[in-house]
Design goal:
This protein is mainly α and 164 residues long. The chain is 70% helix and 0% strand. It has two domains: 59 residues; 85 residues, Methane Monooxygenase Hydroxylase, Chain G, domain 1.
């Protein structure tokens, strides 16, 4: 059997840049593989953890995403600060909403979008000064929700009650 070869610590910055490039090329599996190599020598490398989480969510397809979502969510406790954990947790939900929306699954997309909004709201309360990433994601989610069919009245009322 073949064995993995370790990455040298000095190569981490270039490897991380390659992982980001692979994400841009829509090759999330390659990006995740690189992140695994980085994490094999530095298990707490924050940029590698977040890049891997994003690469996993790049693979959301709107069907069968529970396992992918669980893998992404397993990374959250490894993130160093509470803001990052809350923000990326909400981002996972937003990306699930978008995947469902792409595949015509409006009610599920709506539910995940509302869950994402709750998370981004919590992230806004924790955000560092000058960091409006959660605001940008909130606004993107609101725009997504405006393009989805309105949920049934009882579902809409229930969503309003849980957001209070």
């Amino acid at each position: 059997m073949f064995e993995l070869r370790p990455l040298s610590p000095a190569a981490i910055p270039a490897a991380l840049a390659k992982a980001e490039r692979y994400r841009l090329l829509n090759e999330p599996g390659e990006a995740e593989s690189i992140c695994l190599d980085i994490l094999a020598i530095d298990a707490t490398h924050q940029d590698a953890l977040t890049t891997m989480l994003l690469a996993i969510t790049d693979e959301f397809q709107g069907e069968g995403d529970a396992a992918r979502s669980a893998r992404a969510e397993a990374i959250l406790p490894k993130l160093a600060d509470e803001y990052a954990r809350v923000y990326y947790g909400a981002l996972i939900k937003e990306r699930r909403a978008r995947a469902y929306a792409r595949h015509g699954r409006g009610p599920l997309a709506y539910d995940w979008g509302v869950e994402a909004l709750h998370g981004f709201d919590r992230a806004m309360a924790l955000r560092p000064a000058g960091n409006d990433d959660a605001v940008l994601r909130w606004n993107a989610c609101v725009r997504l929700l405006t393009h989805l069919p309105e949920p049934a009245a009882d579902r809409h009322e229930q969503a309003a009650i849980t957001s209070e």
